[in-house]
Write a structure and sequence with these properties.
The structure is a homodimer. Chain A is of the alpha/beta class and about 200 residues long. Helix content of chain A is about 20%, strand content about 30%. The first copy, chain A, contains 4 helices and 11 strands. Chain A has helices spanning about 55-65, 75-80, 115-125, 140-145; strands spanning about 5-10, 15, 70-75, 95, 110-115, 130-135, 150-155, 160, 165, 175-185, 190-195. In chain A, about 45% of the residues are buried.
């Protein structure tokens, strides 16, 4: 059986976006610092070009890419990313959790699914024995954790205190024991891997 | 100049105590899991005896003890610990931040000081060149961070999602950039060390 892995970047104070997030500014105002690890260093929304991950960050991406067979994303993440330019940027099927599955684009690039559990189920089928990556946003990860469908949780902690924004665990009231699988640090973030005890 | 180091344990969802904390139950109901790393494994408030830290956890304590010359604690932490049995459990002076410094015990075991900045200042003098440890609680650490008197921040992440309780960064609205100093993991927690950029 494929594993379902949720991973997301947060600030030290637990925010996945600074205030003022939205399309084209998915990490909020000044929230770019959360993703310095993604782009190999400091960057701004306004930049024409963005860098590539390097070192441990690149290793992490390569490992994730090698093990996943499908991706699950929330609709707001999809919108914030401006539909990734209407092209699936991964080499594997992507399932978008949405209340309006009828809005699925005709391109066939993205499958729209109602409900995180159904999306994870379809992703697991599509992954054909490989792992499923639940990439966020926060609400999708909370729903997946609450539904008990997450096997592994990776918290990527960026070295910044934001002082406000969207909390990863906002409104999450379940208590879950985790088993530590490991921790490592790149120049720009600390990666902590957990197995979720069900 | 001595460094001021703040360190505190949080859950993965950022709580330093589960709901229902108070004297004798400083980590709240079921919050003992936060401090498995302190006692060498699972423990309960009701236990007659508690274990000792081991492995990496013991190494961390030994390192902290070797570098600190004074401790700053909040009044509520002092109360939750039942005044550590009216005896300073450290080999160095302890300064308790309180709105009622006139309630300082006659024993001379603890110095009561009004305000976190004054407490850190007095602790730095008493430390005579060694470091000052700000041990919490959360409010004291927030006040110290907001006042710009923290040089290093260590977040000790216990492998548990509590789903409620007291948040370390509750109401903290400043944004601070941090510089990663390192990360390591014991059996029971992940230690992430930061330098606070002023």
């Amino acid at each position: 059986m494929a594993k379902v892995i949720a991973s997301i970047t947060t600030s030290v104070d637990g925010y996945i976006a600074a205030p003022g997030d939205g399309p084209g500014r998915g990490l909020g105002e000044g929230g770019e610092r959360l993703h310095n690890w993604v782009f190999g260093g400091p960057w701004r929304y306004e930049d024409d070009a963005r860098g590539e991950p390097s070192g441990e960050d690149a290793v992490w991406f390569a490992e994730v890419v090698s093990r996943i067979g499908a991706v699950v994303s929330g609709r707001s993440t999809y919108e914030a990313a401006r539909h990734w330019g209407e092209r699936n940027p991964w080499d594997v099927p992507v399932f978008i959790v949405t209340h309006r599955p009828e809005e699925e684009p005709d391109s066939g690039e993205f499958a729209f699914v109602s409900g995180v559990e159904a999306a994870v189920e379809r992703a697991a089928e599509a992954a054909a024995g490989k792992d499923v990556q639940v990439m966020g946003g926060a609400e999708i990860i909370r729903q997946a954790l609450a539904a008990g469908v997450v096997d592994e949780l990776t918290i990527i902690v960026a070295p910044v205190i934001l002082g406000g924004g969207k909390r990863l665990f906002e409104g999450f009231s379940r208590s879950l024991d985790l088993h530590q699988l490991g921790a490592r640090q790149s120049r720009f973030a600390t990666f902590i891997d957990y197995r979720v005890k069900q």
